[in-house]
Structures are given as structure tokens and as C-alpha cells.
Write a structure and sequence with these properties.
Strand order of the largest sheet: 1-2
Number of helices: 1
Helix content: 10-25%
Largest sheet: 2 strands, antiparallel
Structural class: alpha+beta
Radius of gyration: 40 Å
């Protein structure tokens, strides 16, 4: 019993006092092999506007012209706020309307 206690005490003392320098195993073998990690939060976006785009502005063959046009505001969490408006001109159905007497 006494021999077991002495061996156990020596094992505990060797374990506690044997490591004095905390290092990673094999860290000193390849000193130039360390990776330099960086972070960038900048994103470049290239965009442009065209005066004559592909949205149809007039068609004499449809009766309700304003049903298919972009109008209003939209907020996207990624791209931000977009807005669209409509410019329209009202024409009478006939050239000389009859207003009565």
C-alpha cells in the first residue's frame, strides 16, 4: 500500500511539473507555414441606367394601359430601397367629344 502511494505521488508530481512551456505539438517544425488570415467587408457593384430601356410605355391595342407598369417603393434587405413612378397623359376617346346643350 505504501509503495502504491509513493508511485502515485511521483506520477502526479511528474505530471504537474513536467510541462513548463505551453506549445502546440510540432509548432516549431514549420515556422514559415503559417497562414495569414484577413477579412474584407467591401463589395463593389457596377450598375448603369439606360434612357431607352425595354419597358413598354404605350400600346394602342390594350384598353387598360396602367395595369402592367412598375409603380411604388420596394425595400430589399440586400440591395436597399428602389422606387418607381409613372408619367401618364390623359387623352379623350374621341377628337370632338359631345358635351350636350
Amino acid at each position: 500500500m505504501r509503495l502504491t502511494s509513493i508511485v502515485l505521488a511521483l506520477a502526479v508530481l511528474l505530471t504537474v511539473f513536467s510541462c513548463s512551456d505551453p506549445t502546440l505539438v510540432g509548432a516549431g517544425l514549420l515556422d514559415d507555414d503559417r497562414v495569414d488570415v484577413g477579412f474584407s467587408d467591401t463589395l463593389s457593384i457596377s450598375s448603369s441606367s439606360f434612357i431607352n430601356d425595354s419597358i413598354r410605355t404605350y400600346s394602342p391595342f390594350t384598353s387598360s394601359q396602367l395595369d402592367y407598369y412598375l409603380f411604388g417603393n420596394f425595400t430589399d434587405p440586400v440591395f436597399g430601397r428602389s422606387s418607381s413612378s409613372i408619367y401618364a397623359q390623359v387623352y379623350p376617346q374621341s377628337i370632338s367629344p359631345d358635351f350636350g346643350d
